[in-house]
Amino acid sequence: MPALPARPLRWLFPVFGTAALWAAFLVIAGLAVSLAFLIVRFGPVSPAAGLLMLPYFSWIVFSSSLNLYSAIHNQGLRCNGFFL
């Protein structure tokens, strides 16, 4: 099955602008909080399970930092109907 082109998703930024970036950051932050809670709760039950979740947690923190950077630095960007 061929990969889908990125073109169908190009309308997200012109339509929603940076609001979509902030909404995505809130979703990722909620995931990070729930994952931290999961690691803390799994630690006493199974230390291996808690440790195996740490790489995923580090990836979530890294991706949220990229999203936050993108949201902060695209504050004044206006699209005026053109695709980026």
What does this structure look like?
The protein has 84 residues and is mainly alpha-helical. It is 70% helix and 0% strand. It has helices at residues 12-16, 18-45, 47-52, 54-73.
Write the layout of secondary structure elements.
Elements: H1 12-16, H2 18-45, H3 47-52, H4 54-73
What is the mean pLDDT? 78
Q: How much β-strand is present in the residues?
A: under 5%
Quick one: overall form?
elongated
How would you spell out the order of helices and strands?
A: HHHH
The biggest beta sheet is recorded as: none
Class by SSE composition: mainly alpha
Q: Tell me the number of helical segments per DSSP (H or I, 4 or more residues long).
A: 4
Q: Which residues form runs of ≥5 with pLDDT under 50?
A: 80-84
Indicate the percent of residues in helices: over 70%
Q: Termini separation (Å)?
A: 27 Å
What Rg do the Cα atoms give? 17 Å
Task: Give the total of beta strands.
Answer: 0
Keywords, separated by commas or semicolons:
84 residues; mainly alpha; 4 helices; elongated; disordered C terminus
Compose a concise summary of this entry.
The chain is 70% helix and 0% strand. It is built from 4 helices and no strands. The radius of gyration is 17 Å and the shape is elongated.
